[in-house]
Amino acid sequence: MREDPAPALSAAAPPAPGLHLLATPIGAARDITLRALDILAGADVLAAEDTRTLRRLMEIHGIALGGRPMLAYHDHNAAGVRPRLLAALAQDRSVAYASEAGTPLVADPGYGLARAAIAEGHRVWAAPGPSAVLAALTVSGLPSDRFLFAGFPPVPAGARRRWAEELKAVPATLIVYESPRRVHDLLGVLCEVWGGDRAAALCRELTKRFEEVRRGTLATLADDTAHDDLRGEVVLVVDRAAEAPPDAAQMEAMLTARLGDVSLKLAVAEVAEATGLPRREVYQAALRLAGRT
């Protein structure tokens, strides 16, 4: 179903009926958007992964609760609270849900609420903003044309290794959340499974006072964190696996296909550029295929 775009908001225009998913700061309180503040000021019902965090954010920005209900909605109580929020939506009320930090549904319990609201035909709006995933990707210096958020790795050793094996060959930059207590162990597993020479960035406490970004290979980051007592939120960004160059048989097959259509010189140039192989190696193969010595 195609949904209309969310209406522009102002202090005089209350949020439209429906579920509004609010991105909240991951550190600096001023990173919240004006639209999110408008929704917090005007929504009929407020819900949050952590109501203490949301109350504090509203106090910082001078937004009064004003007698409106504010419900905690997290992994441990979602099944019980979700029907109350859906009932409010059924009454054409506006419900604002905020993550503890960052964008809802990204490693966050809001996923189940959004799915339930959509299933019952309610409108779901996004008020985009801060995201630890995109903030880490931005400062990592790693390719951003294709990336995969892989969430939190499993804790048990066997499951963690299987998780790493599944992601090993993914042709995208990988973004992972991890506890600071387990990040050194994770780096060790990734060095074993993915290879220690893959480029990576360990981002800690993004947008906060003690923000830190360490860049290097998985092996150097593992060494750097061996004796560190890391604290705070950690996001690990790892470059994609390098593509294996074509073997001799593949290169010769490409040459054979091109030699029937273009000159030897042009075929060599095209195949060398496509494969990244040395031009001399491709030229010698082309000579053999053409029956020359």
Short characterization:
This protein has 293 residues and is an alpha/beta fold. The chain has helices at 34-42, 51-60, 78-90, 110-119, 132-140, 157-167, 183-194, 218-224, 248-259, 264-275, 279-289, and strands spanning 18-22, 45-48, 70-72, 94-98, 124-127, 147-149, 173-178, 199-204, 212-217, 234-238.
* Sheet having the most strands: 5 strands, parallel
Average pLDDT taken over every residue: 91
Global Rg: 26 Å
Order of helices and strands: EHEHEHEHEHEHEHEEHEHHH
Span of the ends, CA to CA:
65 Å
Give the SSE map.
Elements: E1 18-22, H1 34-42, E2 45-48, H2 51-60, E3 70-72, H3 78-90, E4 94-98, H4 110-119, E5 124-127, H5 132-140, E6 147-149, H6 157-167, E7 173-178, H7 183-194, E8 199-204, E9 212-217, H8 218-224, E10 234-238, H9 248-259, H10 264-275, H11 279-289
Helix pairs in contact: 3-4, 6-7, 7-8, 9-10, 9-11, 10-11
Descriptive labels:
293 residues, alpha/beta, Cobalt-precorrin-4 Transmethylase, domain 1, Methyltransferase, Cobalt-precorrin-4 Transmethylase, Domain 2, 3 domains, 11 helices, elongated, Ribosomal RNA small subunit methyltransferase I, rRNA processing, EC 2.1.1.198, cytoplasm, rRNA (cytosine-2'-O-)-methyltransferase activity
